[in-house]
Amino acid sequence: MNDISKLPKVDLHIHLEGSITPAMVRKLADKNGIEIPDGLFDASGENFHWPDDGTAAGALKGFVEAYDKATSVMRGAEDFEAVTYDYFARSAAEGCIYAEPIISAEHGAMAGLTYAEMMAAITAGYERAKAETGIEARFIATCVRHYGPAAAIHVAEITRDNPHPLVTAFGMAGDENAHSVADFKAAYDIAALPYRNAHAGEAAGAESIRAARELLGVRRFGHMVRAIEDAALMQEQLKINAVPEVCVSSNLCLKVYPDYASHPLRKFFDAGLKVTLGSDDPTFFGTSIGREYQIAHAHFGFTVAELLQISRNAIEEAFCDTETRTRLLRRIDAYSV
Ligand SMILES: [Zn+2]
Fold first, then answer.
1. Residue among 81, 176, 202, 292 flagged as catalytic
2. How far is the CA of 334 from the centre of ligand 1 (A)?
3. d(CA 250, ligand 1 centre) in Å
4. What spacing in Å lies between the alpha carbon of 224 and ligand 1's midpoint?
5. What is the C-alpha R_g of the chain?
6. In which residue ranges of the chain is pLDDT below 50?
7. How far is the CA of 173 from the centre of ligand 1 (A)?
8. Predicted pLDDT at 2
9. The predicted structure's pLDDT at residue 177
10. Which of 24, 57, 144, 187 is most buried, by the most CB atoms less than 10 A from its CB?
11. Is 78 tagged catalytic?
12. Predicted pLDDT at 3
């Protein structure tokens, strides 16, 4: 245990189903009488596995297939509640005080749930973890870009028609090279939630980030790491005080960068960007929010004070109300004194 293990952490980029553990997959598969597809785990059975052909495209394809196989064992409300509770309890044990899981109405539907049923199950899991650990959360209703604009509008309408006090933002995930950003503006407008973000600058470069900013009015970006390729864009992003949700392990696993040395996390922070951290799909990338903070310390030289600044950045930019923000900032300040 070092002091980073106790440091208050914030996970601003986490796909709820992407937190399912191999142990949970086995448990749910057993309960639901589903056979686990071959090749989903490595030899130890402790980690997810997919073939490596050395390319980013191959890694992404393999990951998506493993993700779909693993999450296909989730059936019904009980399973959503279990996966949600498990994520929050594990994160809180690592010092996480706040998280904003990305939720997917489409994954709920695959598990046989309406959006309202899925949210009730997620809320139950969250409330149980919150009561036990004090961890807090809001949720980001998210459309999947490669499912197309019509599907995104459907997700937006469901979100609008089932308002939930903890669902405070609309976002977009999925293949950044599918369709154009403009095609999704309508979905964001229909959802009409107080906050918005979008995955941009991970699989695609500067233009994707510019488009999300200009067409969707996004200031908080999933990843944004490839902004580093364009000096003018970096200046534009600094000017709007853009907030990148940086997920280092995800970027390395999906071969966006070959190693820590080439990853722009440190450059982003030193340039003055309001850096935050995320675990993305933690169990698939062999990580957790605790590990992401440890990596920032061990491989990027972030001091305890700098890591606290990252947590503060995240709470300042969290998609929550002022009262919650103030309470969470106090928890960070209490650690630093
Ligand atoms: Zn993501």
1. 202
2. 30
3. 8
4. 11
5. 19
6. 1
7. 6
8. 55
9. 87
10. 187
11. no
12. 80
- Structure pTM? 0.97
Cα distance between residue 221 and residue 172, in whole Å? 10
What SS3 string covers the chain? CCHHHHCCEEEEEEEHHHHCCHHHHHHHHHHHCCCCCCCCECCCCCCECCCCCCCHHHHHHHHHHHHHHHHCCCCHHHHHHHHHHHHHHHHHHCCEEEEEEEECHHHHHHCCCCHHHHHHHHHHHHHHHHHHHCCEECEEEEEEHHHCHHHHHHHHHHHHHCCCCCEEEEEEECCCCCCCHHHHHHHHHHHCCCEEEEEECCCCCHHHHHHHHHHHCCCEEEECHHHHHCHHHHHHHHHCCCEEEECHHHHHHCCCCCCHHHCCHHHHHHHCCCCEECCECCCCCCCCHHHHHHHHHHHHCCCHHHHHHHHHHHHHCCCCCHHHHHHHHHHHHHHHC
Residues 6+ apart with CB under 8 A from 31: 79
CA distances from 137 to 74, 192, 264, 329 (A): 22, 20, 28, 14
CA distance 139 to 141: 6
Ligand 1 centroid to Cα of residue 212, in Å, is: 15
pLDDT of residue 1: 42
Tell me the CA–centroid distance for residue 281 and ligand 1, in Å.
Answer: 7
258 burial class (0-12, 13-18, 19+ CB within 10 angstroms)? exposed
Q: Enter the tokens of residue 331.
A: 């928890």
Q: How far apart are CA 273 and CA 291, in angstroms?
A: 22
Q: How many A from CA of 183 to the centre of ligand 1? A: 20
Q: What is the length of the chain? A: 337
Output the pLDDT for position 145: 93
**Nearest residue to 121 (alpha-carbon basis) of 156, 75, 160:** 75
